[in-house]
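Page 47, continued from p. 46.
Same chain as before, 127 aa.
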Amino acid sequence: MPVNLANNGKKLAKKGIVAQCISSLVLIVIVLIIKPEYTVAVVLGALSFIIPHSIFAYWSFRYAGATKSKLVVQSFSKGLKLKLALTAIFFATAFSQLNAAPVPLLGAYVVAMVSQWLAMYRLRQMS
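Result:
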């Protein structure tokens, strides 16, 4: 049976995405209770990081192995470009069409991003 070298990375990425979702849901519930008028901005901020980052993770781990090194680099590059474009689209839509409050939106974006970093650090410590 062939070994997929990207499996460990895929598992780690999934755990990071789960951590992002959990921390974002906790933040959304807190904001819903304390300042309900900012809930939409917080949801948009969290989604502005989680969705593009999930797509980037998918693209990054499509290929693995020395024989596919060129495909790995191309896939990583495409994933990064797609992530940046989607993030820009989310922010542009949130600010121009939905008039989202900037501080809650950017705050939720940062919480989702930092929770992913902390999850990766914690998972690395556990292994």
